[in-house]
User: Fold these one by one.
Assistant:
Number 1:
Amino acid sequence: MARQMDSGFLAWLRRDLLLAWRRRGEVASPVLFFIMVSTLIPLGLTPESTRLAEVAAGMVWVMALLATLLSVDGLFASDYQDGSLEQMLITPQLLPLPVLGKITAHWLTTGLPLTLVSPLLGLMLSLPAAGFIPLLWSLALGTACLSLIGAVGAALTVSLRKGGLLLTLLVMPLYMPVIIFGSASVSYAIDGINWLPPLAVLGALCAAAVALCPLAVAGALRATASN
Amino acid sequence: MSLSSSSLLSIENLAFERDDSRLFDGINLTVNGGDILQIEGANGSGKTTLLRLLTGALQPSAGRINYQGQPISENRYDYLADMLYIGHQPAVKLNLTAEENLRWMVASAAKSNRVAVADALAEVGLAGYSDIPCYTLSAGQHRRVALARLLISEARLWYLDEPFTAIDKQGVSLLQSCLQHHVAQGGLVVLSTHQDLALNNVRKYNLLSRAEYLV
């Protein structure tokens, strides 16, 4: 039985990764958005490196949040339209496992690439050297939180035709602690303060999200199906 | 009701309402291995809803569904592992090839024979298409991809919602022989279709008149 439950997670993870690979242009657009907007900031704000350095951490974090929000909208939409979601609801496995598989695939295709290109953006925004390692760590944990929380919003709004704005309103309050502790760990490091405490809080948020969000998504999808 | 406890699938007093309006109520049905039950009724009479209630994706407002004498909510895993449902939408991903689609569908179902994917595709007439993305295929071919699951599945309970939609004559006869084979092996089929089946022992159930008769 454990083997069956396992296959629910892996089957959906593999499928979503394969799907993402097939439409890689589309999937890459949040990352491109992330990079493009970040190149505009020095133009719009100031090219002066001391003033840029002050806002760099916060800016990278806001961009990461917006890029995730852009992509999480479609997490369940196409599955809902073509009937795959219906099939997911009637698999004998516990529903949170295939759900977690889908969310993991989403993080691997958006959050992880965002994290990996972030040092480049740090350079463009002249982030002080001390901030790079905390930026990588906080984005790796933080984008996982964003994917997990965003999935709850996506599941709640999947049956609405124009759910984009509602999704934003639903998940924004939940995104706030993530961005606060994420950017705090970077700015603490820049100021020479111990940056591990805010990162630890972010890790705790992430652990809680891994445990709770798949359950919430499963509940929301079941509620959607019964309408 | 004493009979129903030993049957494979029994429906007792099933009712469903949506937004305070009653779609149907008081449905009693018993289906056993070897049975084909065809649900009839005008458009909007609740055929799809009944099938979705059977899958457990929808919760009935009253009544219950028993599998091997037990309510499906009590042995959910065994029931779902023994069930195959093909709905209105074939659940085919357009960016994946027919073979990848089928592999995924088989992997997410519990009881399936994993080796026969290529054979099943060949049998539904998609032999040369296994590595072409599904967006180049027609609607009927999408249905055929979904129906290839029937050839692989080892589930005993098949619930098919309008399985003959968009399928050509030759596909219809293929599907019918597939159903015949399934019930001959002790399986059970509940399907909704407006088409008359060229099969023996099809029981029909009319959702509006509640009449059940043998063809």
Number 2:
Amino acid sequence: MLAMLIRRLIQSIVVMLVVAFIAFSLFQFVGDPINNMVGQEASAQERAELRERLGLNDPIPIQFMRFVGNAAQGNFGISYRMARPVSAVIAERLPATLELAMISAFFALSMGIGLGVYTALKRSGVLSNFIMTVSLIGVSLPTFLIGILLIYIFAVELRWLPSFGRGQVVRISDWWTTGLLTPSGRASLILPAITLGLFQLTLIMRLVRAEMLEVLRTDYIKFARARGLAQRSIHFHHALKNTLLPVITITGLQLGTIIAFAIITETVFQWPGVGLLFINAIRFVDVPMMSAYLVLIALVFVVINLIVDVLYFVVDPRLRATKH
Amino acid sequence: MTITLRAVVSGVAATALALSTAVSAETLRWANVGDSLTFDPHAQNHGQTHTISHQVYDSLIYSDHTGAQTAGLATDWYILDDDPEVWEFQLREGVTFHEGQSLTADDVVFSFERALQPNSDMRPLINTIVEIWAEDDYTVRMRTDGPNPLLANNLTNLFIMSREWAEANNVTEVQDYSGGEENYAVRNANGTGPYRLVSREADVRTEMELFEDFWGMDQYPLEVSRIVFTPIQSGSTRAAAILSGEIDFLQDPPVQDVNRLQAANDIVVRNAPQNRSIFFGMDQGRSELRTSNIQGENPFADRRVRQAMDLAIDRNAIQRIVMRGQSAPAGMIAPSFVNGYEEELDRVTGTNTARARELMAEAGYEDGFSVTMTCTNDRYIEDEGICQAVTGMLGQIGVQVNLNARPNSIHFAELQNGELDFYLLGWGVPTLDSHYVFDFLLETKTDNSGAWNFTGWSNEEFDALSRQLPTETDLERRNELIAQAWRIAQEEVVYLPIHHQVLNWAMRSDVVMDVHPEDQPMIKYLTFE
Amino acid sequence: MTTEQTAGDQPLRPSLWRRILDSDLLYSFLRKPVVIVSFVLTVIIVLAAVLAPWIAPHTPFDPASLNLMNGFTPPFSANEFTGDTFILGTDSQGRDVFSAILYGARISLLVGFSAVAFAMILGVGLGLLAGYKGGWVDSLIMRVADVQLSFPAILVALMIFGVMRGVIPPQQQDQMAIYVLILAIGLSDWVQYARTVRSSTMAEKNKEYVQAARLFSVPAHRILLKHILPNVTGPILVIATIGLALAIILESTLSFLGVGVPATQPSLGTLIRIGQDYLFSGEWWITIFPGLTLLVLALSVNLLGDWLRDALNPKLR
């Protein structure tokens, strides 16, 4: 167990280094950073001086080492666009994205499991088939279009829900703000969370359904039936429990995807999270911000992967047995 | 974990849901596509940044919604009779900054010196100033490099900071990126303006509230006591936000939604010609274009080709379809309120595809040529749509245009590096005088002139005329020079003007505010019906 | 076939085509009207897209053929200036929406199919290699997969576009955009194939029939191709079908973020992006018709994939 953990940790560090290198290369590819830092009329001498002070004349490996060193301490430099430390801006915006991601993951998970179980048990029911087909519409329409349609219906026509922003936000501590504690904050979460979660919902629902169908056919369930256990108990205690492992894995892995795909949802709903920050960074060629975002997303993924691996290990005794 | 509910930062939709019309009459919720980039008044020469700063900071002089120069912190300004190189500004007395400091001439001197630093983006506007000093506590003088009768025009966005505050907060320098530290002035402001900055979250929300000790309490309506500014990037979301009553004032409704907004009974849309003209530039100075199939010669260098392109563009169709009527087709790169504007020059070239083809043939391009057109897709109203339309129209005379539309950050970087053959540009004339256009767009590109002339066009006669303007004090003679210069540029078809933009401001129907030609709403003027 | 006969007990399972004939695939197909409709719709759209140059009434990709004054003509009605009529109306540039859909579907399908093919070849190849070889090869490939997974499709595409912007000269960027899209979408999708194939390969390679083949010194590539690959064809086909729908949607999302194909040669996604600006102002047809086409296409393909998965899974019958 410990050996596995250490091995996975080392692998994760290598992954992070590779990502850091890609993020670092952005600085080399995307224009001369000096142009972003000085006024249009700065002289060649002033530029050269700034270049020297920023260490842009050093060899690439040294610059990369410095980048990694700084990144490890959370220092990604100053955003060209916002003239503020990148890490501070990201820290401010992260709660908005995480909250949205969590809520939509929760939405996707609860609805997905519920509908998945239902459609598996009532496999050939009319409603089941209807749900299966409708759910496909959710994944067959681009996210941004779903978002816009939701805004059109619920914000413009019905005027039930806000069309943009986070609503009233409460600061819980220095590093966390939440919209969950105010009515307008909760109302603002609904449309973006649905937009973002719809795709995952479909995925989870179909996964649960498929796994359930498989489990229901196993001898284990047949024996349970033969023993005369109640249907309900069989379905939820025996069958569902056994389908949850892959569901946990997929949901865990999808959490990172949700955070990344939040870029689109955040753009449509003007949600003040890191995704919107990233899109703006691309528009303004704000390289420090872009590279920091990439490293951050990679970190989220690596950490989630690690957690999922460990969970798997803990949950599934067979894996422990075979690995030893 | 102990949860301390401190500092309830109110959110965008706090009072938003339109179900309750009990919105505080004094709060103005204002939205626009882009945010202010910084509150440091000298770090960026950028429209929306200045617009927001105008609520918090004052300039010596500002231009009001009629375009007239109006007294801000200066009550009077003039060139000294005995020395045409020296401007004198009389300052308003009894002005206090938001944090209590009194405004004196020393603050003005400090602010100008700060704006002249290398890191300052405002330097190009005032780099003719060679010396600035305080005559007494309320008199400032500036010496320019040669007589500069138009200096005052360049000061309308030059904001005045407090020296004491700047020194106390270590912001005497404009943001220096090598320091790795955040500049205090980026998110904090201490101006003399009507509104005090309360909270600032870049890209998300900026809140300002009325400054009770504002010097102009008796001069302006000041009916808004609190401003909540929110940038919203997506056009549809912006339109949705005002339709659903989540905002009170939308500075830039998408053109296609103007009709729908007008039809809504709780919204009014006010419009006015904007101080900005849209046009195409062609690199005619190079011996060969970078992106053309024609090698060894530059088709744009031939005036007949430029004329043909001018004839091929149907500006009225662009106005009607692409702009939904929200533009004024143009023949010159200066709107009607600029000194030197002539209706005759602004008359739109009639579309004549047959004649255009003849001209192409005469120039030796009967088979046409290809070229890449570079456009912004997030800067001007319907910029990408305009470019697409022109692509089609030029295709009809054999000019095969490859359209490359991208964000303005990239567009302007490449443009300023002189890398573009055929590009879209918009230009405003903040000084309201044609010389500004000549100086930036038409004079031969050197270190001191033609800063935005990327066409490679260079005309000695034109340069000679234009360079007399700054020091010519006889106005009649000066206007004559301007007219001559315009005629040369028009004759040569240096640029292909498309239209002058029209500004639309959408607001709650009880909000009254005149549209400002430079798209700078000044909330101090706003009243409620 | 009964449930007891799962893959494990069955040496040398028959090939996919064999199973199509044997295993009631056709029968199951004919019994499901939804699936038949999906199939027919997919075929119609694909055919219409392929034949676009011959059946489209206009050539929407030729800017010179457009008349701007035709802009915003509603469906089935004559334009007030030119008197021209268009079945599904025109967009902001006077482009015939029907023709634009046909040509747009062509680009979307081209990007979709190519990206899927690219992802499939890459993913299956690497998955087989990783699963069969194991050890450090497996570790390396799966770590690369992890790195790649650290960057979801959108980020991969945005990064590739950023790099390409630096590498490709501006005048060729538009022509290259479609290849960059294929590369970006393909690269973002191979991991799924690799993971599936790897796990199947790992499971299969210890089975008796593969062990037996090894004993007879059958070369590795033959074992992989002849014995292991046919067993994973089903899952791969399912992933590919759903991947096709995903690729088409991803393409439209990328163009929403401004990195897709140029607006002068719009795909379905680009058409929707351009059209959505006009949704509130009443010109619904510009975005609704391409949107519907995309929906029908993606939905049909998804339904086919869905059915295929169930039909190919012997445990579910």
Number 3:
Amino acid sequence: MTGPVLDIRGLRIALPKGADRPFALAGLDLSVNAGEIVCLVGESGSGKSLTAGAIMRLLPEPHVHVAGGAILFEGRDLLALPEREMKAIRGDRIAQIFQEPMTALNPQKTVGWQIDEVLRLHTRMDRKARRARVLEMLDLVHIPDPTSVHGAYPHQISGGQRQRVMIAMSLCLSPRLVIADEPTTALDVTTQLQILKLIRELQQKEDAGILFITHDFGVVAEIADRVVVLSQGEMVEHGPAAEVLNAPQHPYTRALITAIPALIPPKPRNFQGAPVVLRAQGLTKTFAPRGGLLGGKRRTVKAVDNLSFDLHRGETLGVVGESGSGKTTVSRIVTRLLEADTGAVEVNGKDLLACSPRELREMRRHIQMVFQDPMASLNPRKRVQDIIAQGPIVHGTDPATARARARDLLELVELSPAAATRFPHEFSGGQRQRIGIARALAMEPKVIVADEPVSALDVSVQAQVLKLLADLRDRLHLSLLFVTHDLRVAAQLCDRVIVMQKGEIVESGVTADLFADPRHPYTQQLLASIPGRGWTPPDLKTDAA
Amino acid sequence: MHLSQVLSYALRRLLQAVPVVLLIMVGTFLLLKMAPGDTVDALVGDMGGADAAYIEKLRAEYGLDQPVWVQLWRYMAKIVQFDFGWSFVYEKPVATILWERLGTTLLLMGSSLSLAFTIGVVLGAVAARRAYSLTDNMISTLGLVFYATPSFFLSLMMILLFSVKLGWLPVGGVKTIAAFHTGWAHVWDVALHLIMPTAALSLIYLSFYLRLMRASVLEVVELDFVRTARAKGAGEARLMVHHIMRNALLPVVTLLGLQFSTVLGGSVVVETIFALPGLGQLAYQSVIQRDMNMLMGIIFLCAIIVVIVNFLTDLLYARLDSRIALR
Amino acid sequence: MTAATTDLPRAEAPRAVTLWRRFARNRAALLGLFLFGLVVLMALTAGLVEPVDPLRRAGDPLTRPFTDWAVPLGTDQLGRDILAGLFHGARISLLVGVLATLLSIGIGVLVGALSGFFGGWVDDVLMRVTEAFQTIPNFVLLLSLVAILGSSIEYITLAIAIVSWTAPARMVRAEFMSLRHREFVDAARNLGVSNASLIFREILPNALPPVIVYASVIMALSILLESALAFLGLGDPNFASWGNMIGQGRSVLRTDWYCAAIPGIAILLTVLSFSLLGEGLNDALNPRQKKT
């Protein structure tokens, strides 16, 4: 048996002065053998992506640079190679797949040209042979109709196809090592599963070593042979996948795994007797393409088609679907941030969609929203207390009272009242999301619409915010309309879910029933695509940090 | 990129220009109305005075007794046929004078813009690739100084250096009047006359393109697909030519279209100083001689030129950007 | 774990201090600030330091600079004191620059905000008007306006504003279009905040930084436009102006070039100071755009 394809020893990466820590990576040891998938797992800021940069020698030098250690690729130290030789290795012996397939491809060049570039750079094949090879690769990654995709621009094909193109590009010279940096994070679950399968399949065929960088333990369970866990630049745990996943040793790993929502829905609660606080009827929204006279070739898109549902007092209703399913449009219509074409939204017995602008402003206090992006949902120029007190002040509360109440609310969402006079950018993502929740609560609403409130957060923070939401819901008898793409999250929090596809409800029901016995093929496919569905996180709650 | 898509995009942009041109027609009409004195006043002034009854008759003849909107309608009907009225200074139709002057201005525009664009883009790209180095600092400083130098001041200093002190270049005019050059000698003569005006007009725009190109390249370099190309093993030269330039040029091309009208405005000062018989000099003289018909004719003609140039840059942009069908 | 989330970051330095630090890191910007201060000082003290009327004869015509300390920078062909012209010209340049900038930014913000916030037909109409103004060469329009309105300093300022508002309008519109769908705007709308409040309290403060930076560009352009008008002899004859001094100097260029060169350098340095200031402001207000 020969040595590992990649052998990293004591790798340290220095950060510029003034960063939160001196080293992005403080002593990483890692090896990848041929035919093996090693997952490098960590939350944002753990230094996992910089590892990829260091191997490719594409760190943003001189600000971030390797400060020590060795990166042995097939026995040679990459850090000692002259740039010319390194250039010959990149794309040929070591290939990389990136997270965002839209931005990772040059928008001005055809797909074929971009794959072809690898061959032009590293081989002496003639034009005809190169074209044949490119088409062969496109076929290998299961792209239907390779010839037409060959001539297409990146924006003309779907996200999943773009990632397939990236994979074809990276594999076309049969590299010994492939670095996959969060290659499925930007994709929908069903596409994600297909891409993971594809990576597995090709890796077995080509016998390459894969360094797979991810934050998602579900994906790890799906694909990894061995696992390395990073926390704040420190390697805290490593070992075979089964061991790390099922019997983690280090407290950090244990905490991470505990935070993963189990796929076990809560015990059904009965809301049949409870009053309906939100009733949507026949909601329809069509997006007409812009462009007027000569731009009218594109089809109109039905984002939401004849959608109806009820939300009872104290209940949590999940709206689940992939991108393009119309779930976000639903959240915008029921809050009337977007005008529906037809339909009615009854809040408190009154149709919100029929309100005059004056009535609408008054009605808004009953239905509040928690947004997805904790960076974008708070006005960066306002202090926290003004953000939270703004709603009550608009509705006539005296400003001093409203600000005092804002401090109470901060305590309610488990933030220090001293936060009141700070600006949003001084807080972490999870803390900002708590501020967003406090802002919604300040209006004492009947209904809270939460649009992917935890999808931008790291898994440990996500668990805390979900717990807070559940606590508040139970204490304040809130009704939640919870929009999410993440079935694990839905399983954790929702009493009932509706599954949406292309603007229509394909299935709805009590969460536990629906997860146990999905009827519609699409629901079945969705559930089957949850990464790591075969793995039940071990119960570590007894001694969790 | 399909030709039909490019064409439909360009056509759509051209249609958007129709209301713009109509607005400009109304605007010039309003300016004419605001200006002290009308055609009849000018006519009467030209004749050395006339009695009130005759003036009334003239007014009726020219339609000036009609309601404003009728006058506007007639004005617009005439202007779409490029009939801008009579110039009482030149004693000729305005349109005739405009056509005579158009060539010189277009020549000056063409040479200035191509100079500013090519040098600006190249210097900007070089500065960005060597960001924060000595080269970058020198180029950027040069850009700042070019930007801050008023074209008329630069013109005077160039005349002082190259014509008065060194005697290399002619002070003004578009050709040597008495020489009657023909063929290549004529071309060379005109080129010599155009060197200083072109330089004076282009430097400020050169600095615009330089700064925009530098910023644009710095932005594109950070994009993911450049990282992908690096990971493929592409060298710096290849990165620059195939991946960076094409994308970085897009905002510069947009600016080229947007700024064309400003450059045309800048020609007023430069043509006046160098005595170039173009539209700019004509505009200045019309203001001095209060030839309002001429001035409005110039505005309208310039607007048409700008619309055409914008159409051409749109075509160029559509050619450069494969995503145009999405917009 | 909840303990961790209640931890607050250390308090930051006040905003003004942070801004100044970022600004002062750019040495060129400090030079710009110094030059700008100098011009402001000249404008403010014009009557005190140089009590001589810049439009009246002060010494022998065409006295060379540094030869007669009564007129340190010499005199022009009419015997007018060039240094006095510089001081009083600074006043006019700044006055026209500041007022025209305020006016054009005001118009631009209004048009851009309405256009970007409401979109639809409001946007269509306002953008066609903006394009119409952009399509007419700005200096030709400026000449026409001055020809019609007259050459007094008020009308010149107004005319400069009329030809300069389109760029800030487009800029504000673009900012509004990107900000109006930001979640914090939706959040405020969802609280029942009125459109006027959304425009002026929520979006505008976030849209302003690039506009403030751009104001330095407009200021520079306004000064260049005013001096070009004055150079062509179309400025206000009642005030000394750098452009006018250069225009006058043109006739004695062959023999006494300093008459044109000195005010020319004054314009150059003033405009340069605005550009440098603008870059410093950009570093201070939009820090993300620059790498350390």
Number 4:
Amino acid sequence: MSGAGTLVARPLLANISVGDHVLVRFLGFNLDADLLWSTGVAAVVTIVLGLWARARATSGVPGKFQLCWEITVTATQKQVESSIGPRGAKIVPLALTLFVFILVGNLFGIVGLGATYDVLLPPAADINLPLALALFVIVLVHIASVRSRGIVGYVKHYLAQPFPIFLFPFNLFINVVEELAKPITLALRLFGNLLSGGLMLALLAYLVNWRLGIVPVGGILFIVFDPVWKLFDLLIGVIQAFIFALLTILYFDTAMSDVH
Amino acid sequence: MPIATSNFLVPNFTIVFELIAFLIVLGVIGWFVLPILDKMLTERQEQIRSELEAADKAKEDAEEADTERRRALEDARSQAREIIAQATTTADQIVTGSEARAQEEYERIVRSADAEVAVARQTAVDEVTSKVGVIVLAAAERVVGREIRASDHQDLIDEAIAAVRSESEAGAPAGGTR
């Protein structure tokens, strides 16, 4: 959740704001320490889960943990196979890692009591991680497109459609806008959902201070709605991780397809 | 540590470290985790496929054995029917032969008995016949009160014997053989 760093440092009655981070200086650059902390934890957790699965992997009857990994791997492979075909086999590690890494980070939203007491904000609730992932994916998509179509085919793709070739300036404009929109929408979709989920938790935590006389109305509402929203947030986290991985596969499918 | 407020839609240099963190995770998952899981999945699929093939083969064998068992059972039933039919025929033949032999034996015994009866009756008649003359003479002597010589009254004796004979013949059963 963007702004969790602020809420950690401020009193309960503080205004809820976004874009506030604990800063550290590194090589003359400002770094968001709280975001790096949660991203690092998400990376370590993902790696540990992966290596644990590797250590316990068996070709016999799998345990529940291995089964979860195998279901995820199989679903990713099937999605890539149905969208791109055998050529897309190299996409599987990327799509799988995106899904697991984003999912692990998104689950941080349900850790803690919300906002003020959070020590791990979901890393995707800040624009840096979603944008980094989206840009990385889009760069790879364009590389795959060039390798699949060749330079001429790649350029022609932007000039010769959707209108006839003599209208290539319009075609180029439309396609460039579309290509620029891809990483932005990919990043903002994930970031916006996670940010809004975090803000809702912050609002619920802010309710604790609302009293009517001696009746802690806000506290009661918090106790009721905080678990409900966290369950909802958990669902949103899974869905958004899935959508990010799915869109990545579809972008590769579009880039590697022969149909322009 | 200082808290800074910035435009939440504008990334900063943190994006580089975010990307580095993801690339590390991607490297570990892509090189160390996914190949192993993929290998395990492939091995299991291969194992399941071979087990399915073995199960199909076993099913075919079982069906073949069942067919063979049914065929053997049908053969056995057919043989049993033939044996029963043959036994019935043999039994009929035996019964028919036994009845014929029994009838023959019965008739032979009856014939033998008839012959014996006839011989015995003839013997009895002969004995009676030989004694009738004496008895007649003795009875006549007692009636007339004097001695009667057989030579003198041969006619009378012959009449008595003839009478005995005719009575014995009249007393024999109808048909003469029983």
